Amino acid sequence: MQATDRTRLRTQAVRRVSIVTTASSDTPTKKILMMGGTRFIGVYLARLLVKAGHEVTLFTRGKTPVTQKIASETDQEYAEYSSKVKHIQGDRQDFDGMKSKIASAGFEIVYDINGREAVEVEPIIDAIPSLKQYIYCSSAGVYLKSDLLPHFEVDATDPKSRHKGKLDTEALLQSKGVPWTSIRPVYIYGPLNYNPVEEWFFHRLKAGRPIPIPNSGLQITQLGHVKDLADAFVRVLDNPTAFGQVYNISGAKYVTFAGIARACAKAGGFPTPELVHYNPKDFDFGKKKSFPLRDQHFFTSIEKAKNDLGWSPKYGLVDGLTDSYNLDFGLGTFRKAADFSTDDMILEKLGIKVAVPA
Amino acid sequence: MALSLQFPVSTPRQASLEISKLTPGCLASSFSLRSPSTSSLHSLGTSSGIATAVKKSSRRWRAAKTVAMAAAANEVSNRKVLIVNTNSGGHAVIGFWLAKDLVAAGHEVTVMTVGEESSDKMKKPPFSRFSELRDLGVSTVWGDPKDVGAAVGGKSFHAVLDNNGKDLDAVKPVVDWAKSQGVEQFLFISSAGIYKTSDEPPHVEGDPVKVDAGHVGVEDYISKSAFKFWSSFRPQYMTGSGNNKDCEEWFFDRIVRDKPVPIPSPGIQVTNIAHVSDLSSMITLAIGKPSASNATIFNAVSDHAVTFDGLVRLCARAAAKEAKIVHYDAKALGIDARKAFPFRNMHFYAEPRAAKEKLGWTSSTNLSEALKERYEEYIKIGRDKKDIKFEIDDTILSKVG
């Protein structure tokens, strides 16, 4: 066989493989409406979708700038993204107003990143006759607490949970007849996280303070990197396997509370932290949270997403926390200022003095 | 011929996944199930309502699924398999269930138990029930791992499973004999206890192990012995009829006598209790799919973790009784937790990811159901009436106050 023939065949083979790997690159361009998209998950997801060639419109109140350059992108990448992504300004709680703004754009896909209650979702579906898929960001918080873990998608959900609205929304989606997919993340982390998960630990590590851990620190939970989550959201796009399905999306491994503290220390290049264990029942913290995570085992199996979507998390815990540190906290940025008031209550009661660095 | 399989599934999606794994002609026309108290699956006929059929008895469900799984997409059939089985301890029951599953999957089985048939150890389960194996056509022999050939009388085998040794001293003779006999596939029951402790559960295949552990040396030796196929299985704890070592019985002993259940603090430590049929179905699949299972380590466990406190609750529910949990700090009270409690006092949780990914295996352990069955058996043999001394419990409870 001639060398040129061999090269041609190899190139064709490579092209065939690359077409097969990502759903979005062999799907025709979609008109996508994203509810949210300016704070955390949507920041990464919208970029992936625009890069894949889709027409993306963010629906937000406009309180946060529609686009902002993020630490991990070049000026050119940001220019490309910000010139392509569209925006509709509005309040999703104003159902009639919202409907009139989104009705005639011919949207085919909705990514609902910030929906909380079913009543917020129904008007969107009703307003868009061309809707081909509703993709919803739910929460693993809907699972009923269990002695047997991890939570699988088929497990019982808790109608009394704080995330009841997410459950109601999933039920609504099921009832409306439009193809839908629901994603249930556990704890999300990564640069720009507005929920003080890793940030809470980084503040204490930076201050050289001991880290107060409720009870034994053996509680097992699961952190998932926001970029892995965004990848999963892309893979369900226009994917018939995902129609009518819920997926747990989080990290490949679980982690203990004590383990998170140690992983954050590794990520930021801090020495192994001193952990201080306390019984939350011995304190009255008022409205303040003394620890960012719920005091129980809380983790899910992600095997359904792996099997159905060919997705798997790219970030291990320490790698992912390092990414978050390098692109956010380590650059001096964070969402919530350090508040050690509950820490001080705990340390005082336990008779532990904090050595304040000079 | 169009073939659809009647067996219980829990969801329509699961049903379609199971069906898609079957190919016409790969299924034998009749199977008989192991336990006399379950119905036999004489022929695989057509089924309507697959999506709606749901198991009533977990035994029937497990058996049917085992059979279906063993038959689905096998690479080989009618293998001659030798199980070298320990004569005591938690792993003894594996060989008993595995022999039955292998027969159901169409293989020819010999079980060589270490030691002598006349030994007192043979009066305990599962050995006391070996007539059940012989009724199925399993050959049961006794012998010394240092001279397997003498015990099996010159028989040849495609596959040999060592379910006996914990170190190279015990297993090397078996490995070397198998190699000399041209055995194609060597399988080993190792232990999930060899994983190094970690902040990030679960233990998954490939995670670092304690290099000095005996089982590690064995796995290493097997992998380098140039068998055509080899696999290693790392179990945790098992429950199931015929078990040789107490597992859930420790909990029943206390619950049925209305005694408090002392649990090492904080009680949220997680462990993995599999029904032994999860292991036997996994190994059967590995024997039926030697290429798929080759050069692979498998965590031989269920796919759920249970906490210590949770296990007490499940056992109490199985016994239809209330249980009182008393937490104690073993270290502070100077209690040796290894003597006081049947499981490792720490998170000890592995997941069976390799089996799912490489063999298409699924777990069928339903711990609630399994414990109910075990409780029925516990009562049936009159163990609730047995006079048991709770010396360590009493020490703990007096110290806790």
TrEMBL record, chain A:
- A GO BP term, please? monosaccharide metabolic process
Do you know which Pfam families this protein is assigned to? Epimerase (PF01370)
Query: Could you tell me which residue ranges the NAD-dependent epimerase/dehydratase domain spans?
Result: 32-249
Gene Ontology cellular component terms for the protein in this record = cytosol
The record's listing under Gene3D superfamilies reads:
NAD(P)-binding Rossmann-like Domain
Cite the InterPro entries for this sequence: Epimerase_deHydtase, NAD(P)-bd_dom_sf
PANTHER family given in the database record: CHLOROPLAST STEM-LOOP BINDING PROTEIN OF 41 KDA B, CHLOROPLASTIC (PTHR43725:SF8), UDP-GLUCOSE 4-EPIMERASE (PTHR43725)
The name on file for this protein is: NAD-dependent epimerase/dehydratase domain-containing protein
Tell me what organism the protein belongs to: Selaginella moellendorffii
UniProtKB/TrEMBL annotation, chain B:
Q: Which GO terms describe its biological process?
A: monosaccharide metabolic process
Q: Where does the NAD-dependent epimerase/dehydratase domain lie? A: 89-299
- What residue ranges are annotated as transmembrane? none
GO CC terms of this entry? cytosol
Q: Which Pfam families match?
A: Epimerase
Q: From which domain of life does this come?
A: Eukaryota
Name of the protein: NAD-dependent epimerase/dehydratase domain-containing protein
Which species is this UniProt entry from?
A: Selaginella moellendorffii
